[in-house]
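Table S4 entry, ErfK/YbiS/YcfS/YnhG family protein.
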Amino acid sequence: GAVFVLQFPSAIPAAGQAEILKNLQVSMSIPEPGRWRWFTPSELHFRPEHFWPVGERVTLEGDLNGLQILGHRLVGSQFTSTFTVVDNHLTVISAATHRELVYNNGRLIQNFPVSLGKPGFPTISGTLVVLSKSPSVFMNSATIGFPGLYAQDVYYDVAIS
């Protein structure tokens, strides 16, 4: 499902995070429970408890104008963002069969083989959201310090949460 992602230019301290949350409102044409989560001190996500149904109109309204964050008063920080869910896209990946099944509005449209990572580094499981996709990304394992270094272009990259 789609998520709202707010990115701030610098880390927001815990007290500032609480103030920001008080000034954000998500409304839906078909009410669905959801929640905010700080992924990092500078990145905030809202996602529903379940997938939003087709036809759902979702609006985020924020009024951060005048808040004191890191000694600075925010100015001109009122915003509204709206989207409508027009299709249901679902991908189901099975570690048991090493297959990826892609559905569009309940109809199977693709069936792919998948590798799911290498031994010792299993792919995470659960209900995940696609945050971004890229035709190619340069990956360098030296940045996280794992043994067996690699530095290479990786194709059809999908970032999930």
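Residues 87-123 form one domain.
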